[in-house]
Design goal:
Elements (H helix, E strand, L loop, with lengths): L17 E5 L6 H11 L5 E4 L11 H5 L3 H5 L3 E4 L13 E7 L2 H14 L8 H12 L3 H7 L8 H7 L11 H14 E6 L3 H12 L23 H10 L1 H15 L3
Parallel strand pairs: 1-3, 1-4, 2-3, 4-5
Helix pairs in contact: 4-5, 7-8
Amino acid sequence: MTEQTRPSGSSRALGDDTLVFLHLPKTGGTSLRTSLQRAFDPAATALIYPADDLDGAMTREQFAALSTEELERLRLVMGHVSYGVHRRLPRPCRYATIVREPVDRIVSLYYHYRNLPGVRFMSKGHRERLRLRLRRVSLEDWVFSERRIPADNLMVRNITGAKGIAFGACTEALFEQAMEHIERDFVAIAVTEDMGRSTALLEAVVGRPLATVGRENVNPKRPLLEDVDPAVLERVRDLNEFDVRLYEEAKRRLEAYQ
């Protein structure tokens, strides 16, 4: 990736470049991961996730230890990572990601930890579920009393690759940087609530059909938004001002995609 390369913020064919897909938690990325994996050679794919989360994945430390030859072969890099991964890769790269309505994403993330079935024993998610249940931590306390970074403009944070920004300290400048990265380095921003058009966009990027995959990692026990205290939801929305704006822009661009 070079500063002179400026793909549009909506779509551009990937060609021979490496696709780096930022999988933001609770955006539907698990379903897209399955589809994208089937479209790429497994030997040319790197999935970067915590050690207990996914069979066949590598940790960030393992990815950092790959040789230049191993990195040269990669055509798909995907995981719970942030912008900046391209600096490790020797080939030209393009980014993509998927975003979700921010308040719904955060409620989903909380209840993912709170009561999602099938979490691997003693994984990070399993330990968090035990803690939330034993201490009876509410959604509001989880976000605001515990000052959870994943509940504070995480989409903007990941797209900028910013580190060390305290809870509640995201700024207009950070949002503008996220939009600059999207304009310059991203070939696709998919939207959870519009998976049909999102899939078509990604197919245009990778240049081949993507297998249709049903929704994965869905939590049947989480409440609907209308069943959550509206005052709490409003606090969460206010906190995530920049993610809300980014999401609305992503929706606008996707709706304009033909």
